[in-house]
């Protein structure tokens, strides 16, 4: 009867021995594990500190830009360069991105006002103060190269044209297999852009362009209207955006059906009057820091005006 007891004791001893070995092995590695944890913790603290300083500096730059007369809302600012502390201490960042939204533009004060989004991308940029931790309204940034853009969305372009339900679409290039798919990204073009909107059938009442309350797309409008999809060219003339309508869009993408407006000879004058409603030379739109526009395209449902410059000094209170 004693043999089974001996065997059980022997089995517990054999199974227990490896457990003791594992504990001894963990004990030998404990200092290494502690060092690794401490290094990771220190790296995490350093990263968070660097990020916090970057956020504070970017907020300081945004508030300095807010002193510019036409900037009504705090811009979104990104200063490029990691680690931030080194770049700020040296007074040079590898680049920057500044986006100001809701910037007022002239041309439709009586129709609710028009606004644009303005974005500036720079190459290497250096504050004139020699450091990059804090910015003031009187500071200047020196950039190696600058790309500035003004983005007009469909509602604001519609207010400028006096067509309040206007919507911009960018058809895919004809003959391109699979065009318009996710792999193409945002489609852009300057010829054959489509403007969709509702206009009154002529003669239009006197008094200038319609307001939102008197727009042909308003529910209270009692006159005759037509909704059309119009093909336009986008161009720049003396720094001004020019929209030139030249025909009706017939597809293949979604569009408004204007019936026989462009095929019935009896409606030729009406067609020209409708196209004229989509043709305009907009008032000059000041680019960020007085840059000159050099190109214009559609970008999805927006209109994008861009300008480029090499070396440029950017005064923070003159955006």
Query: Strand order of the main beta sheet, please?
Result: 1-2-3-6-14-13-8
From N to C, what is the helix and strand string? HEHEEEEEHEEEEEHEEEE
Backbone CA Rg: 32 Å
Our count of helices gives: 4
Number of folding domains?
Answer: 1
Strand content: 25-35%
Largest β sheet strand count, sense and barrel closure: 7 strands, antiparallel
Content-based structural category: alpha+beta
Uncertain segments: none
**What's the overall geometry?**
elongated
Rounded average pLDDT: 84
Give the number of DSSP strands.
Answer: 15
Q: Oligomer, anyone? A: single chain
First-residue to last-residue Cα separation: 97 Å
Query: Residue share in helices?
Result: 25-40%
Keywords: Membrane, Transmembrane, Transmembrane helix
Protein name: DUF2993 domain-containing protein
Features:
about 325 residues, alpha+beta, seven-stranded antiparallel beta sheet, five-stranded antiparallel beta sheet, 4 helices, 15 strands, about 30% helix, elongated
Summarize the structure.
InterPro entries: DUF2993 (IPR021373). By secondary structure, the protein is of the alpha+beta class. The protein has helices at residues 2-65, 84-90, 154-161, 268-277, and strands at 76-80, 95-105, 114-122, 125-127, 140-143, 146-153, 167-169, 188-189, 191-200, 225-237, 240-248, 280-281, 295-299, 302-309, 312-315.
């Amino acid at each position: 009867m004693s043999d089974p007891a001996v065997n059980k004791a022997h089995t517990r001893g054999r199974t227990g021995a490896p457990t003791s070995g594992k504990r001894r092995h963990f004990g030998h590695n404990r200092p290494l594990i502690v060092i690794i944890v401490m290094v990771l913790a220190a790296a995490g603290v350093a990263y968070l500190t660097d990020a916090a300083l970057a956020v504070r500096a970017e907020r300081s730059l945004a508030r300095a830009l807010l002193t510019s007369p036409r900037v009504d809302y705090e811009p979104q600012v990104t200063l490029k360069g990691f680690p931030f502390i080194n770049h700020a201490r040296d007074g040079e960042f590898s680049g920057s991105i500044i986006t100001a939204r809701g910037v007022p533009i002239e041309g439709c004060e009586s129709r609710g006002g028009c606004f644009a989004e303005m974005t500036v991308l720079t190459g290497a940029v250096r504050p004139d103060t020699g450091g990059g931790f804090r910015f003031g309204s009187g500071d200047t940034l020196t950039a190696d190269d600058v790309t500035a853009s003004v983005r007009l969305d469909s509602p604001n372009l519609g207010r400028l044209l006096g067509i309040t339900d206007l919507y911009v679409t960018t058809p895919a290039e004809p003959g391109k297999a699979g065009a318009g798919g996710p792999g193409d990204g945002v489609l852009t073009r300057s010829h054959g852009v489509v403007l969709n909107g509702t206009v009154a059938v002529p003669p239009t009442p006197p008094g200038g362009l319609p307001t939102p309350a008197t727009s042909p797309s308003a529910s209270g409008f009692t006159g005759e209207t037509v909704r059309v999809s119009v093909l336009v060219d986008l161009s720049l003339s003396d720094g001004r955006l020019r929209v030139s309508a030249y025909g009706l869009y017939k597809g293949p993408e979604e569009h408004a059906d204007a019936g026989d407006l462009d095929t019935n000879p009896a409606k030729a004058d009406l067609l020209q009057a409708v196209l004229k409603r989509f043709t305009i030379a907009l008032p000059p739109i000041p680019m960020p820091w007085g840059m000159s526009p050099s190109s214009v395209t559609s970008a999805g449902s927006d209109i994008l005006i861009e300008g480029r410059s090499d070396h440029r000094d950017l005064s923070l209170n003159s955006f």
